[in-house]
Amino acid sequence: MVALRLMHAQFPNMEKVMTQPFVLRSQLYSSVRDRTQVDRDLETLRKEKVLRLFKLNTGQDDHAIMFVEDYLKQMSIAVTKIGPKSHDPVFEWFKCYVINTKLDVSIDHNELCSLLSCGGKVNDDRISLLMNAGLLSRQLIDSNVYCLRLRFPILVPCSRVFLRGGKSFYHSLIVGNTKRC
């Protein structure tokens, strides 16, 4: 999908902002005439494990799209930020057994525990580590379901700009003035 690659390439690359490139589904919809074709292409790329989709906690019904290699980098950044607990094997289990097998944007508690247990003993503390690293969040409607998350530190101060649209968001990253958001 050309539009996806183009938007990925235009994502600002700044050392101070530790965010890997991502694209909003709504951005793709506004750039490509045929939304059905966009959905088909995204589904194909998702099944081929080229990209991942993530439900955003913005109150809007939008999804972030990120290439798997970028997501793994983003995941590594998020894990290192939690300090000494980043050495817990649950992060490797999550990467090997959940990310590689679960393609949906959410996962049931029992399925999460089952997949993680392929690596070792799973308990609530380990799931809490994944949540504290920003890799999972509980779904508000059903607390037995987790949503796979992206941790974008830049999104918190810029959520209003982010909701106004991709160009404004990208501009705020380029300008680097998050205080105005």
Fraction of helical residues: 40-55%
Tally the beta strands. 6
* Global Rg: 17 Å
The residue-averaged pLDDT reads: 81
DSSP summary: helix tally: 9
Strand content: 5-15%
Largest β sheet strand count, sense and barrel closure: 3 strands, antiparallel
Distance between the termini: 31 Å
* General form: globular
Q: Give, in order, the helices and strands.
A: HEHHEEHHEHHEEHH
Could you say which structural class the secondary elements and strand pairing correspond to? Answer: alpha+beta
Task: Give the low-confidence spans.
Answer: 153-162, 174-181
Brief overview, please?
The protein has 181 residues and is an alpha+beta fold.
Write the layout of secondary structure elements.
Blueprint: H1 2-10, E1 23-24, H2 25-31, H3 35-47, E2 51-55, E3 63-67, H4 68-80, H5 90-99, E4 106-108, H6 109-116, H7 124-132, E5 136-138, E6 145-148, H8 159-164, H9 166-175
Antiparallel strand pairs: 1-3, 2-3, 4-6, 5-6
Pfam families: Stk19 (PF10494)
InterPro entries: STK19-like
Family: Belongs to the STK19 family.
Task: Summarize the structure in words.
- InterPro entries: STK19-like.
- Pfam families: Stk19.
- Belongs to the STK19 family.
- With about 180 residues, the chain is an alpha+beta fold.
- It has nine helices and six strands.
- The protein has helices at about 1-10, 25-30, 35-45, 70-80, 90-100, 110-115, 125-130, 160-165, 165-175, and strands spanning about 25, 50-55, 65, 105-110, 135-140, 145-150.
- The protein has a three-stranded antiparallel β-sheet. It has a three-stranded antiparallel β-sheet with strand order 4-6-5.
- The two termini are about 30 Å apart.
